[in-house]
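Note to self: user wants both folds in one dump. Writing first protein now.
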Amino acid sequence: MNEVTHEPEVISHHFSSGVYCKLVRIPNEYTVQSHKHKFDHMSMLISGNVVVETETTQQAYSADKGPVIIEIKAGISHAITSFDGDAMWACIHATDWTDESTIDEVLVVPPSPNMVKADFMVDVTPLVDEIYAQPELWDQFDFRTKSPSSPHHEGHDIILRYNSPDNYNENSPQDFAKEHESVWYPAVVKLPSFKYVFNQLLDNIPDCEIGGILITKVPAGKSIAMHSDAGHWHPEYYSTKILILLQSAPGQEFIYANGERYEGIAGEVFFFNNLPEHAVLNPTDTDRISLIVAAREKVKQ
Protein backbone atom coordinates (compact mmCIF):
# COMPACT_ATOMS: atom_id res chain seq x y z
CA MET A 1 0.00 0.00 0.00
CA ASN A 2 1.31 3.44 -0.90
CA GLU A 3 1.96 5.77 2.01
CA VAL A 4 -0.49 8.66 2.14
CA THR A 5 1.23 12.05 2.21
CA HIS A 6 -0.19 15.50 2.84
CA GLU A 7 2.87 17.36 1.52
CA PRO A 8 3.61 18.21 -2.12
CA GLU A 9 5.48 15.39 -3.83
CA VAL A 10 8.05 16.04 -6.54
CA ILE A 11 7.31 13.29 -9.04
CA SER A 12 10.18 13.90 -11.44
CA HIS A 13 12.71 16.34 -12.90
CA HIS A 14 13.28 16.60 -16.65
CA PHE A 15 16.10 18.38 -18.51
CA SER A 16 16.33 18.73 -22.29
CA SER A 17 18.22 21.22 -24.48
CA GLY A 18 17.92 24.24 -22.19
CA VAL A 19 14.45 23.41 -20.86
CA TYR A 20 13.71 22.20 -17.34
CA CYS A 21 10.40 20.73 -16.13
CA LYS A 22 9.51 19.77 -12.55
CA LEU A 23 6.39 17.65 -12.08
CA VAL A 24 4.70 18.00 -8.69
CA ARG A 25 1.63 16.44 -7.08
CA ILE A 26 -0.17 18.94 -4.82
CA PRO A 27 -2.44 17.25 -2.25
CA ASN A 28 -6.05 18.35 -1.95
CA GLU A 29 -6.51 21.70 -0.15
CA TYR A 30 -2.76 22.20 0.24
CA THR A 31 -1.23 25.62 -0.37
CA VAL A 32 2.22 25.82 -1.92
CA GLN A 33 3.59 28.82 -0.06
CA SER A 34 4.02 32.10 -1.86
CA HIS A 35 7.33 32.42 -3.68
CA LYS A 36 8.98 34.34 -6.53
CA HIS A 37 11.03 33.24 -9.53
CA LYS A 38 13.98 35.09 -11.02
CA PHE A 39 12.74 34.67 -14.62
CA ASP A 40 9.43 34.46 -16.47
CA HIS A 41 8.28 30.86 -16.84
CA MET A 42 5.30 28.71 -17.72
CA SER A 43 3.41 26.35 -15.43
CA MET A 44 1.04 23.64 -16.57
CA LEU A 45 -1.93 22.35 -14.62
CA ILE A 46 -2.08 18.78 -15.91
CA SER A 47 -4.95 17.52 -13.77
CA GLY A 48 -7.12 18.73 -10.92
CA ASN A 49 -8.08 22.23 -9.84
CA VAL A 50 -6.05 25.05 -8.32
CA VAL A 51 -6.27 28.67 -7.29
CA VAL A 52 -3.23 30.78 -8.13
CA GLU A 53 -2.98 33.84 -5.89
CA THR A 54 -0.61 36.75 -6.37
CA GLU A 55 -0.33 39.97 -4.40
CA THR A 56 -3.13 41.52 -6.47
CA THR A 57 -5.02 38.69 -8.19
CA GLN A 58 -6.69 35.37 -7.46
CA GLN A 59 -7.58 33.04 -10.33
CA ALA A 60 -9.07 29.52 -10.33
CA TYR A 61 -8.03 26.99 -12.98
CA SER A 62 -9.41 23.56 -13.86
CA ALA A 63 -7.92 20.83 -16.04
CA ASP A 64 -11.27 19.09 -16.50
CA LYS A 65 -11.09 19.68 -20.25
CA GLY A 66 -7.35 19.21 -20.59
CA PRO A 67 -4.09 20.75 -19.36
CA VAL A 68 -3.97 24.50 -18.74
CA ILE A 69 -0.91 26.69 -19.41
CA ILE A 70 -0.30 29.55 -16.94
CA GLU A 71 2.38 32.20 -17.38
CA ILE A 72 4.18 33.28 -14.20
CA LYS A 73 6.11 36.54 -14.45
CA ALA A 74 9.47 37.05 -12.80
CA GLY A 75 9.41 38.67 -9.36
CA ILE A 76 5.70 38.05 -8.78
CA SER A 77 4.86 36.35 -5.49
CA HIS A 78 2.43 33.53 -6.14
CA ALA A 79 0.89 30.69 -4.16
CA ILE A 80 -0.94 27.64 -5.50
CA THR A 81 -3.80 25.95 -3.63
CA SER A 82 -5.43 22.74 -4.84
CA PHE A 83 -9.14 22.01 -4.30
CA ASP A 84 -11.62 19.24 -5.07
CA GLY A 85 -8.83 16.65 -5.09
CA ASP A 86 -5.10 16.39 -5.76
CA ALA A 87 -3.57 18.39 -8.59
CA MET A 88 -0.68 17.57 -10.94
CA TRP A 89 1.40 20.68 -11.63
CA ALA A 90 4.41 21.18 -13.88
CA CYS A 91 6.85 24.10 -13.68
CA ILE A 92 8.66 24.74 -16.99
CA HIS A 93 11.76 26.96 -17.17
CA ALA A 94 14.35 27.97 -19.73
CA THR A 95 17.72 27.15 -18.14
CA ASP A 96 20.94 25.32 -18.92
CA TRP A 97 21.31 24.26 -15.28
CA THR A 98 20.84 20.50 -14.89
CA ASP A 99 21.54 19.78 -11.21
CA GLU A 100 18.19 18.99 -9.63
CA SER A 101 19.61 19.35 -6.11
CA THR A 102 20.45 23.04 -6.67
CA ILE A 103 18.04 24.06 -9.44
CA ASP A 104 15.82 26.04 -7.05
CA GLU A 105 18.80 28.20 -6.07
CA VAL A 106 19.12 29.17 -9.74
CA LEU A 107 15.43 29.80 -10.43
CA VAL A 108 13.77 30.87 -7.16
CA VAL A 109 14.26 34.21 -5.41
CA PRO A 110 15.61 33.45 -1.92
CA PRO A 111 12.80 33.72 0.63
CA SER A 112 12.58 36.70 2.92
CA PRO A 113 12.94 36.13 6.66
CA ASN A 114 9.74 34.90 8.27
CA MET A 115 9.93 37.65 10.90
CA VAL A 116 11.06 41.24 10.44
CA LYS A 117 11.39 43.83 13.20
CA ALA A 118 9.68 47.12 12.42
CA ASP A 119 11.59 50.39 12.51
CA PHE A 120 9.26 51.79 15.17
CA MET A 121 8.18 50.90 18.70
CA VAL A 122 4.99 51.54 20.65
CA ASP A 123 4.30 52.48 24.24
CA VAL A 124 2.65 49.42 25.82
CA THR A 125 2.93 50.22 29.53
CA PRO A 126 -0.67 51.44 30.10
CA LEU A 127 -2.11 48.36 28.38
CA VAL A 128 0.05 45.99 30.40
CA ASP A 129 -1.09 47.67 33.62
CA GLU A 130 -4.74 47.21 32.64
CA ILE A 131 -4.17 43.54 31.81
CA TYR A 132 -2.60 42.85 35.20
CA ALA A 133 -5.43 44.66 36.94
CA GLN A 134 -8.01 42.33 35.34
CA PRO A 135 -6.77 38.72 35.39
CA GLU A 136 -10.34 37.51 34.88
CA LEU A 137 -10.09 38.55 31.22
CA TRP A 138 -7.84 35.60 30.40
CA ASP A 139 -9.50 32.62 28.70
CA GLN A 140 -13.04 33.96 28.66
CA PHE A 141 -12.99 32.55 25.14
CA ASP A 142 -10.68 29.53 25.10
CA PHE A 143 -11.36 28.00 21.69
CA ARG A 144 -7.62 28.12 20.84
CA THR A 145 -6.31 26.74 24.12
CA LYS A 146 -8.99 24.41 25.49
CA SER A 147 -8.10 21.19 23.70
CA PRO A 148 -5.11 19.27 25.11
CA SER A 149 -4.09 18.54 21.53
CA SER A 150 -3.94 22.23 20.58
CA PRO A 151 -0.42 23.64 20.09
CA HIS A 152 -1.66 26.63 22.14
CA HIS A 153 -2.84 24.54 25.09
CA GLU A 154 -0.17 25.84 27.49
CA GLY A 155 -0.98 29.44 26.58
CA HIS A 156 -3.76 31.83 27.59
CA ASP A 157 -5.73 34.29 25.44
CA ILE A 158 -7.68 37.51 25.65
CA ILE A 159 -9.63 37.68 22.39
CA LEU A 160 -10.24 41.26 21.24
CA ARG A 161 -11.55 40.68 17.73
CA TYR A 162 -12.47 37.58 15.71
CA ASN A 163 -15.42 35.59 14.39
CA SER A 164 -18.52 36.21 16.52
CA PRO A 165 -18.72 33.83 19.51
CA ASP A 166 -22.30 33.14 18.44
CA ASN A 167 -20.88 31.23 15.46
CA TYR A 168 -18.78 28.86 17.57
CA ASN A 169 -19.87 25.20 17.56
CA GLU A 170 -18.06 22.83 19.92
CA ASN A 171 -18.95 19.93 17.64
CA SER A 172 -17.07 21.50 14.71
CA PRO A 173 -14.53 23.97 16.15
CA GLN A 174 -12.52 23.93 12.93
CA ASP A 175 -15.36 25.80 11.21
CA PHE A 176 -14.77 28.82 13.42
CA ALA A 177 -11.74 29.78 11.31
CA LYS A 178 -13.66 29.63 8.05
CA GLU A 179 -14.62 32.77 6.13
CA HIS A 180 -16.30 35.36 8.35
CA GLU A 181 -16.44 39.03 9.29
CA SER A 182 -14.57 39.77 12.50
CA VAL A 183 -16.33 41.55 15.36
CA TRP A 184 -15.05 43.27 18.48
CA TYR A 185 -15.18 41.31 21.74
CA PRO A 186 -16.19 42.72 25.16
CA ALA A 187 -12.59 42.81 26.45
CA VAL A 188 -11.89 45.82 24.22
CA VAL A 189 -14.10 47.94 26.48
CA LYS A 190 -12.27 46.65 29.58
CA LEU A 191 -8.88 47.57 28.10
CA PRO A 192 -9.20 51.20 26.95
CA SER A 193 -5.42 51.50 26.48
CA PHE A 194 -5.64 48.96 23.67
CA LYS A 195 -6.95 51.76 21.45
CA TYR A 196 -3.89 53.85 22.35
CA VAL A 197 -1.55 51.01 21.33
CA PHE A 198 -3.59 50.12 18.24
CA ASN A 199 -3.61 53.71 16.98
CA GLN A 200 0.16 53.89 17.33
CA LEU A 201 0.35 50.82 15.13
CA LEU A 202 -2.10 52.14 12.52
CA ASP A 203 -0.09 55.37 12.26
CA ASN A 204 2.91 53.35 11.07
CA ILE A 205 1.50 50.77 8.64
CA PRO A 206 -0.28 50.97 5.25
CA ASP A 207 -4.07 51.11 5.11
CA CYS A 208 -5.27 47.60 6.01
CA GLU A 209 -8.39 45.53 6.47
CA ILE A 210 -8.26 44.26 10.06
CA GLY A 211 -9.13 40.68 10.99
CA GLY A 212 -8.53 38.92 14.29
CA ILE A 213 -6.74 40.55 17.24
CA LEU A 214 -5.74 38.84 20.47
CA ILE A 215 -3.49 39.15 23.47
CA THR A 216 -1.70 35.90 24.17
CA LYS A 217 0.35 34.80 27.16
CA VAL A 218 2.96 32.04 27.30
CA PRO A 219 3.48 31.50 31.03
CA ALA A 220 6.90 31.11 32.58
CA GLY A 221 8.33 27.70 31.76
CA LYS A 222 5.68 26.94 29.12
CA SER A 223 5.64 26.93 25.32
CA ILE A 224 3.51 27.03 22.21
CA ALA A 225 4.20 23.78 20.34
CA MET A 226 5.59 23.69 16.82
CA HIS A 227 2.72 24.08 14.34
CA SER A 228 1.61 25.73 11.11
CA ASP A 229 -1.48 27.91 10.68
CA ALA A 230 -1.65 27.14 6.94
CA GLY A 231 -4.75 25.54 5.54
CA HIS A 232 -7.27 27.82 7.27
CA TRP A 233 -9.11 30.76 5.73
CA HIS A 234 -8.35 33.39 8.37
CA PRO A 235 -4.54 33.14 8.51
CA GLU A 236 -4.29 32.82 4.74
CA TYR A 237 -6.67 35.70 3.89
CA TYR A 238 -5.20 38.07 6.49
CA SER A 239 -1.68 37.58 5.22
CA THR A 240 -0.07 40.40 7.23
CA LYS A 241 0.59 39.33 10.83
CA ILE A 242 1.86 41.83 13.38
CA LEU A 243 3.23 40.96 16.82
CA ILE A 244 3.72 43.60 19.49
CA LEU A 245 5.61 42.42 22.55
CA LEU A 246 3.89 43.64 25.71
CA GLN A 247 6.12 41.79 28.18
CA SER A 248 9.20 39.67 27.59
CA ALA A 249 12.53 38.57 29.00
CA PRO A 250 15.87 37.48 27.53
CA GLY A 251 15.79 33.83 26.54
CA GLN A 252 12.20 33.82 25.30
CA GLU A 253 12.14 32.89 21.61
CA PHE A 254 9.83 32.79 18.62
CA ILE A 255 11.33 30.03 16.48
CA TYR A 256 10.72 28.49 13.06
CA ALA A 257 11.27 24.91 11.95
CA ASN A 258 13.82 26.17 9.40
CA GLY A 259 16.07 27.39 12.23
CA GLU A 260 15.12 31.09 12.41
CA ARG A 261 15.00 32.34 16.02
CA TYR A 262 13.85 35.73 17.31
CA GLU A 263 13.92 37.51 20.66
CA GLY A 264 12.66 40.97 21.54
CA ILE A 265 11.80 43.51 24.20
CA ALA A 266 8.51 45.09 25.27
CA GLY A 267 7.28 47.68 22.80
CA GLU A 268 9.00 46.17 19.77
CA VAL A 269 6.86 45.41 16.73
CA PHE A 270 7.42 42.48 14.38
CA PHE A 271 5.85 41.49 11.06
CA PHE A 272 5.77 37.70 10.88
CA ASN A 273 4.61 34.77 8.80
CA ASN A 274 2.52 32.20 10.67
CA LEU A 275 2.07 29.78 7.76
CA PRO A 276 5.44 27.98 8.09
CA GLU A 277 5.90 25.77 11.16
CA HIS A 278 6.73 27.84 14.21
CA ALA A 279 6.74 27.71 18.00
CA VAL A 280 7.24 29.96 21.04
CA LEU A 281 9.56 28.95 23.86
CA ASN A 282 9.57 30.51 27.32
CA PRO A 283 12.15 28.85 29.57
CA THR A 284 12.32 31.97 31.78
CA ASP A 285 10.55 32.86 35.02
CA THR A 286 8.68 35.75 33.34
CA ASP A 287 5.40 35.43 31.45
CA ARG A 288 5.65 36.37 27.78
CA ILE A 289 2.69 38.54 26.69
CA SER A 290 2.08 39.59 23.10
CA LEU A 291 -0.53 41.46 21.10
CA ILE A 292 -1.16 39.86 17.71
CA VAL A 293 -2.97 41.62 14.87
CA ALA A 294 -4.05 39.93 11.63
CA ALA A 295 -4.44 42.30 8.70
CA ARG A 296 -4.69 42.40 4.92
CA GLU A 297 -3.18 45.31 3.05
CA LYS A 298 -5.76 47.03 0.87
CA VAL A 299 -5.06 46.94 -2.85
CA LYS A 300 -4.66 50.44 -4.26
CA GLN A 301 -7.13 51.16 -7.06
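First done. Writing the second protein, which came from a different request thread.
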Amino acid sequence: MAEISPLRRRMIEDMTVRNLSPATQQSYLHAVSKFSRYFGHSPDRLGLEDVRAFQVHLASTGISWASLNQIVCALRFFYGVTLGCETIPERIAYARKPRKLPSVLSADEVVRFLERSRASNRVSRSRPPMPQGCACRK
Protein backbone atom coordinates (compact mmCIF):
# COMPACT_ATOMS: atom_id res chain seq x y z
CA MET A 1 0.00 0.00 0.00
CA ALA A 2 1.25 3.48 -0.86
CA GLU A 3 2.44 5.75 1.92
CA ILE A 4 0.02 8.58 2.78
CA SER A 5 1.53 12.05 2.74
CA PRO A 6 1.61 13.91 6.07
CA LEU A 7 -0.68 16.60 4.63
CA ARG A 8 -3.28 14.05 3.54
CA ARG A 9 -3.05 12.26 6.89
CA ARG A 10 -3.57 15.59 8.66
CA MET A 11 -6.65 16.35 6.56
CA ILE A 12 -8.09 12.88 7.28
CA GLU A 13 -7.49 13.39 11.00
CA ASP A 14 -9.12 16.84 10.88
CA MET A 15 -12.18 15.40 9.17
CA THR A 16 -12.35 12.46 11.58
CA VAL A 17 -12.14 14.73 14.63
CA ARG A 18 -15.03 16.77 13.22
CA ASN A 19 -17.02 13.58 12.64
CA LEU A 20 -17.50 14.08 8.90
CA SER A 21 -19.13 11.10 7.22
CA PRO A 22 -16.94 8.68 5.26
CA ALA A 23 -18.63 9.79 2.02
CA THR A 24 -17.84 13.44 2.76
CA GLN A 25 -14.26 12.55 3.62
CA GLN A 26 -13.83 10.69 0.33
CA SER A 27 -15.40 13.57 -1.57
CA TYR A 28 -13.16 16.18 0.08
CA LEU A 29 -10.02 14.10 -0.46
CA HIS A 30 -10.92 13.57 -4.10
CA ALA A 31 -11.60 17.29 -4.61
CA VAL A 32 -8.30 18.38 -3.07
CA SER A 33 -6.33 15.76 -5.01
CA LYS A 34 -8.08 16.86 -8.24
CA PHE A 35 -7.11 20.45 -7.46
CA SER A 36 -3.52 19.38 -6.80
CA ARG A 37 -3.30 17.29 -9.98
CA TYR A 38 -4.68 20.14 -12.10
CA PHE A 39 -1.70 22.32 -11.20
CA GLY A 40 0.84 19.55 -10.65
CA HIS A 41 1.83 20.92 -7.23
CA SER A 42 1.12 20.13 -3.62
CA PRO A 43 -2.08 21.94 -2.61
CA ASP A 44 -0.37 23.68 0.31
CA ARG A 45 1.80 25.54 -2.24
CA LEU A 46 -1.21 26.82 -4.15
CA GLY A 47 -3.00 30.02 -3.26
CA LEU A 48 -6.22 31.93 -3.75
CA GLU A 49 -5.53 32.80 -7.40
CA ASP A 50 -4.95 29.12 -8.12
CA VAL A 51 -8.27 28.27 -6.47
CA ARG A 52 -9.98 30.90 -8.62
CA ALA A 53 -8.34 29.57 -11.79
CA PHE A 54 -9.44 26.06 -10.85
CA GLN A 55 -13.02 27.26 -10.33
CA VAL A 56 -12.98 28.97 -13.73
CA HIS A 57 -11.67 25.75 -15.29
CA LEU A 58 -14.40 23.67 -13.62
CA ALA A 59 -17.13 26.11 -14.64
CA SER A 60 -15.93 25.99 -18.26
CA THR A 61 -16.28 22.20 -18.26
CA GLY A 62 -19.99 22.54 -17.48
CA ILE A 63 -19.85 21.07 -13.98
CA SER A 64 -23.09 21.37 -12.03
CA TRP A 65 -23.35 24.10 -9.40
CA ALA A 66 -23.83 21.46 -6.68
CA SER A 67 -20.63 19.63 -7.64
CA LEU A 68 -18.72 22.91 -7.85
CA ASN A 69 -19.94 23.89 -4.38
CA GLN A 70 -18.88 20.54 -3.00
CA ILE A 71 -15.35 21.19 -4.29
CA VAL A 72 -15.49 24.70 -2.81
CA CYS A 73 -16.44 23.21 0.57
CA ALA A 74 -13.52 20.81 0.35
CA LEU A 75 -11.05 23.59 -0.49
CA ARG A 76 -12.44 25.82 2.25
CA PHE A 77 -12.00 22.98 4.73
CA PHE A 78 -8.49 22.24 3.49
CA TYR A 79 -7.30 25.85 3.69
CA GLY A 80 -9.24 26.83 6.79
CA VAL A 81 -8.89 23.76 8.98
CA THR A 82 -5.99 21.67 7.72
CA LEU A 83 -3.67 24.55 6.82
CA GLY A 84 -5.09 26.99 9.37
CA CYS A 85 -5.34 29.92 6.94
CA GLU A 86 -7.83 32.49 8.17
CA THR A 87 -8.25 34.68 5.10
CA ILE A 88 -8.34 32.27 2.17
CA PRO A 89 -11.46 30.19 2.97
CA GLU A 90 -13.77 33.17 3.32
CA ARG A 91 -12.61 34.46 -0.06
CA ILE A 92 -13.37 31.24 -1.96
CA ALA A 93 -16.69 31.94 -3.62
CA TYR A 94 -19.59 29.52 -3.78
CA ALA A 95 -21.45 29.01 -7.05
CA ARG A 96 -25.00 30.29 -7.18
CA LYS A 97 -27.82 27.99 -8.14
CA PRO A 98 -28.90 28.98 -11.64
CA ARG A 99 -32.42 30.27 -11.94
CA LYS A 100 -34.47 28.80 -14.71
CA LEU A 101 -36.97 31.02 -16.42
CA PRO A 102 -40.47 29.65 -16.71
CA SER A 103 -41.49 28.50 -20.15
CA VAL A 104 -43.57 31.05 -21.99
CA LEU A 105 -46.51 29.95 -24.09
CA SER A 106 -46.62 30.94 -27.72
CA ALA A 107 -49.61 32.88 -29.04
CA ASP A 108 -51.04 29.70 -30.64
CA GLU A 109 -50.69 27.78 -27.36
CA VAL A 110 -52.53 30.54 -25.49
CA VAL A 111 -55.39 30.47 -28.02
CA ARG A 112 -55.68 26.66 -27.75
CA PHE A 113 -55.63 26.87 -23.94
CA LEU A 114 -58.39 29.47 -23.87
CA GLU A 115 -60.51 27.53 -26.36
CA ARG A 116 -60.23 24.38 -24.25
CA SER A 117 -61.12 26.23 -21.07
CA ARG A 118 -64.19 27.75 -22.75
CA ALA A 119 -65.26 24.31 -23.96
CA SER A 120 -64.86 22.81 -20.50
CA ASN A 121 -66.87 25.70 -19.00
CA ARG A 122 -69.77 24.96 -21.41
CA VAL A 123 -69.82 21.33 -20.30
CA SER A 124 -69.63 22.19 -16.61
CA ARG A 125 -72.52 24.67 -16.91
CA SER A 126 -74.84 21.87 -18.02
CA ARG A 127 -74.33 20.11 -14.66
CA PRO A 128 -76.09 21.49 -11.60
CA PRO A 129 -73.66 23.13 -9.19
CA MET A 130 -72.74 21.10 -6.14
CA PRO A 131 -72.76 22.97 -2.85
CA GLN A 132 -69.41 23.18 -1.13
CA GLY A 133 -68.90 20.75 1.66
CA CYS A 134 -71.09 18.07 0.09
CA ALA A 135 -69.25 14.83 0.07
CA CYS A 136 -70.31 11.28 -0.29
CA ARG A 137 -70.21 9.52 3.05
CA LYS A 138 -70.68 5.89 3.85
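Dump finished. Worth passing along: The two ends are 71 Å apart (CA to CA).
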